[in-house]
Design brief:
Two copies of one chain form a homodimer. By secondary structure, chain A is α/β, with parallel strands linked by helices. In chain A, 35% of the residues lie in helices and 17% in strands. In chain A, helix 9 (283-291) links the parallel strand 9 (269-273) and strand 10 (297-299).
């Protein structure tokens, strides 16, 4: 397994101010002479969790590609409220945009000597980064794969995100981000609010939440997967990372908010893979986007009941479908 | 306008214990000699809010029908945590089921001398009550109309409800239900968590939340419609009413949890009207239910982007569609 490395950017301007010593955490896999694949993290993702698609015999093959995984700011590995020294620690951490993240990732790739990126691949917030890359560095990226993501965070998606955010911010132990110990009550509420959004209604109807007997009931599922799932995260990190997501919009980078025009300007080849049952990155948004990607992108809907989670390594059938489509796309 | 009346049940057993002096608030409209329509409230509904369908020239015509609107326990008008004396006040209020509500409503109708119910009509939690009526009183109800409801609260619906509940319970001012003043922070979080569920994604994509210029942005919409919308509610009322919803399942009344068998036993004629874009009472659940209603019920999907709200008087087009279908159904 690759060791996590840390790139120090020095003084680094971000959308909400500046980080005096911004750090991007990343890992590299395979031979640097191979074509480079960039695979940034999603919400709730760490560099470790990228392994579901990276390996000798996985779709992002470390035998065929030089794979670079990069941690988003606020994920707890790159610069985040939880690991940044005063005066930008905790609730004082500045807002960070996707554009800031991509600029930072580009700096890492420059240091690694990557001359051109064969493909950017991402799921969810990673899928949003996959859209940003060819917009910001049009001559550097050949392909991108956006899985359960979008080029702009839709109003409904923004509204959904207000839910977990509101629960955490209003919680009895969050204390405006000035908590002395982790606000466990707030984070548990955050997880519960999030849970029903992550899968399709049919998945629950088919009792997917019981995970073939792992859980006796909905409550156990919520306690372990959704309360437990966020306990390892810092509350301020969760909020600033959520802010990055909520403000996603490639057309802020150029074209003054005209998303259609911005998308029409993308030169890289795209593979856009929404999940049919995704409740916050619904396929309709992808259809709209692909209609503006002219002939550069292909839409392939993941036919699944797993909702958003389909794209994140949640089950073997969807994993295989996604891997096969990506492999085909890489060979085109 | 009809005056609100209060029926005292005396000592009234409920699923979580007993209410020493249970009260059902209700109103009557029109001539008692006309066919009787029962129209119970939904979540967040008061007797006042039933007026959107009740009136001389509305679908529940007070010229043609004797309309009785009834308030759910926990809605703040019927017995609720907020209006029940000690020792069952506030957080000490017992759990109440749909079955308890229907038994109470039946007692009111008996007092009013209603010999048979021409139709029960309901939206959302009202739609769930519409299913309960013919199950509990099979020889008393001729027709029922379930708008954006279901005969059993699905696991996904239960999971969605955990969100607003968790936000309120975890909030800094809820204090385990022992608050001395209303927990405004908790209720605002509750509303924000709820908001994105109430409409379809497409409604937001079309900027429905801006309400044709009423709101400049998502934040204003959330503040007025969703934070403001719940400030007039008591927090404990919100939670016990939510519990009634969360535990809805007609097959608990009979057939030992076998929903298909319970539905097959319904004799009344049903009109089942889900909204195409409802995120927590999705039409697929209605399709399943109607498949077990043999030839007694008809499914009519409301083709709308308004999500769940389509059934609650949110816009003229859906109102008209629903009214026309109900009128046709009443004449069959």
């Amino acid at each position: 397994m690759s060791e996590t490395q840390y790139h120090h950017h020095g003084r680094f301007p971000v959308s909400g101010g500046v980080l005096p010593d911004a750090i991007t955490a990343y890992r590299t896999y395979g031979d640097p002479k191979n074509p480079c694949i960039v695979f940034p993290t999603c919400y709730g993702g760490r560099l470790d969790s990228q392994d579901y698609m990276v390996g000798e015999d996985k779709v992002l093959s470390t035998k065929k590609y030089y794979v670079v995984t990069l941690a988003l700011f606020s994920n707890g590995e790159s610069s985040s409220p939880s690991n940044t020294p005063a005066p930008y620690n905790g609730p004082y951490f500045p807002a960070v945009s996707y554009e800031d993240n991509i600029r930072a990732q580009y700096a890492v790739l420059q240091k690694l000597g990557v001359k051109t990126v064969f493909a950017v691949v991402g799921f969810s917030m990673g899928g949003q980064q996959a859209y940003y890359w060819p917009v910001i560095y049009p001559d550097y990226v050949e392909r991108y794969v956006a899985i359960c993501g979008s080029a702009r965070t839709s109003p409904h998606n923004q509204c959904f995100l207000e839910g977990p955010k509101a629960a955490l911010v209003a919680s009895k132990d969050f204390d405006g981000g000035h908590y002395k110990t982790q606000p466990e009550i707030g984070k548990r509420a955050f997880g519960r609010v999030y849970s029903a959004w992550a899968y399709g209604q049919t998945w629950f109807r088919q009792h997917g939440h019981l995970h073939d007997g792992k859980y006796p009931d909905l409550e156990s599922f919520l306690r372990e997967d959704w309360e437990g799932g966020f306990l390892g995260w810092d509350a301020n990190d969760l909020l600033t990372l959520l802010h990055t997501w909520q403000t996603g919009d490639v057309s802020r980078v150029r074209d003054g908010g005209d998303l259609a025009q911005c998308l029409r300007g993308i030169k890289a080849k795209g593979l856009i893979m929404p999940s049919k049952t995704d409740l916050y990155f619904p396929p309709e948004d992808s259809v709209d986007e692909v209609s503006n990607l002219q002939n550069t992108a292909r839409l392939v809907v993941i036919d699944t009941v797993w909702g958003h989670m389909a794209g994140g390594g949640a089950n073997a059938a969807d994993d295989k479908f996604i891997a096969d489509e990506i492999t085909k796309f890489f060979e085109e």
